[in-house]
Amino acid sequence: MSEPVSADWPLLLAGCFSLGILHGVVPDEHTWPITFSYSVGAASGRGGIISGSLFAASFTAQRSIMAQLVYFALFPFLAFSDALNGPVYVVVGGAMAAAGYLLLKRRLPHWHPLMWASNRDLAKHEAEVETSGRVPLHWCLIHGFIAGFGVDAGLFTTFVYLVAVPAMPGALLGFAPGAAFGAGTFAVLLSVGLVFGSSLQLAKKWGSKKIETFGSLVGARSLYFGGLVFVAAGVLYYLGFGALVPVDFGNLIVFLFMVAVIVPVMLKTWREVRAMPSDAKATNQAPAYP
User: How many Å apart are CA 111 and CA 30, to the nearest integer?
Assistant: First the structure.
């Protein structure tokens, strides 16, 4: 880079980390909808933490790669072009809808990120896929990496890529601002996943089978219908509709996801699961698609 290296680069990294925390706290179309779906689908605090951490880890990896590319002045349009949000929404929505559809149709693939794991571990994973309708938490890795290509609010993008990246003392640390930003988001999404995942434990009187069924169905349905919302939003954004609405388009997507998808899905699923016999097995008597 041609700019002089700043001696305050450690402070700039701290600033990136702080902005990452803010990015995780503020409901964002690139983080909260996916984290909610997988965390509730896990139906436990532990599962919520795992889903949040997997999503954020993949998101952090993508931001680190982008920061390094920006440092070398390669593909900067991927980091700054708002026009990229439309295609990103479509791809994220397509991935969400596909995941939800596969879950609801009980056609879960046996893919696992640790394909080099022992035969015993892979056999255990395949058995869980066959016998449970739970949302596979490792799918968060795919969503997190795709979501990382979304262009955030001006402050996030400008500070991380235009202020912090050029100030790094060498090429080996070009990735650091993106990694610090992702780490801040990672820290918050752990808590978000824990809260969403633990929320179903308030209904312990239902019994573990009903809780698992409710979480799995809400997670799958919110992925499916939320994904369709994202695809439609991506097309509208690409056509310039985002400039016509008086509010931030990303916030509008989050609002639509929570109000038009999550609330109806939770009410519908709650009625269905409440009507199930108390000894019903979630894997055999869960309400049908959609």
Answer: 24
The 3-state secondary structure of 5-71, one letter per residue: CCCCHHHHHHHHHHHHHHHHHCCCCCCHHHHHHHHHHHCCHHHHHHHHHHHHHHHHHHHHHHHHHHH
Query: pLDDT per position in the chain (290 positions), as tens?
Result: 444 455 588 899 999 999 888 888 776 776 777 787 777 776 666 777 888 888 888 888 888 988 888 888 765 665 556 677 788 889 888 888 888 888 787 776 655 554 444 455 545 545 544 444 556 667 778 878 887 777 665 667 778 888 888 888 888 888 999 999 989 988 888 888 887 777 766 666 666 677 777 877 888 888 899 889 989 998 998 888 878 888 888 778 888 888 888 889 989 988 888 777 764 454 445 555 45
Give the tokens for residue 215: 């979480």
Domain positions in the chain are: 9-285
Q: Please report, for residues 16, 89, 161, 179, the alpha-carbon distance to residue 2 in angstroms, rounded to integers and kept in the order given.
A: 22, 34, 15, 22
Tell me the one-letter amino acid at 73.
Answer: A
Question: pTM (2 decimals)?
Answer: 0.71
